[in-house]
Design brief:
Strand order of the largest sheet: 2-1-3-4
Number of strands: 4
Low-confidence stretches: none
Structural class: alpha/beta
Largest sheet: 4 strands, parallel
CATH class of the largest domain: Alpha Beta
Order of helices and strands: EHEHEHEHHHHHH
CATH topology of the largest domain: Rossmann fold
Number of domains: 2
Distance between the termini: 11 Å
Strand content: 5-15%
Shape: globular
Oligomer: single chain
Number of helices: 9
Length: about 180
Amino acid sequence: MMGVIVEGESDEKVIREITHKLGVNAEIRRSKRGAKIQSPTKTKSYVLDLLHDCDTIIILKDSHCSDPEEIESNFGNRLRELGLSIDGTISVCIVVHAIESWLLADEEAIGDYLSTTIKEIHNPENACKPEEILDEIFKENNREYLKGGEDPREIAKRLRLERVIKKCPSFIKFKRVLV
């Protein structure tokens, strides 16, 4: 079984739908109260807990407008200092900015959910705050994007993963480790 540690409620909902689409049996753990995964010490406790039942563990962390490669390197180094080996059994995958960038990759999925047509977003990982772009799209359709609500799950259910692969390099790495 695969273990995935995520930062927030919307991440958990989206990853549940993605693992389901890919046919991957995954145990998904969310940081307490949706906090960012910042503490390697706390992350280590999640990893050790998941290692009882999981062969592979992915720590999925958002870059939040910072350099994803730098975050991956720093976080991986901090985990190694705590005695965790980032070697294939445990992987750190960084979502460029936030999970909503993956949702923005498929405007048809968003449009289907909102019952409208959405203009194509060519480079969703370029948006520093993709949740704000989603909220703008929702507001244009007299709705409000609720990050912790059912909106992320409903868009993810409609998501065509080939679109995400085409537009989001960070998803490619996640999928490669996941499958």
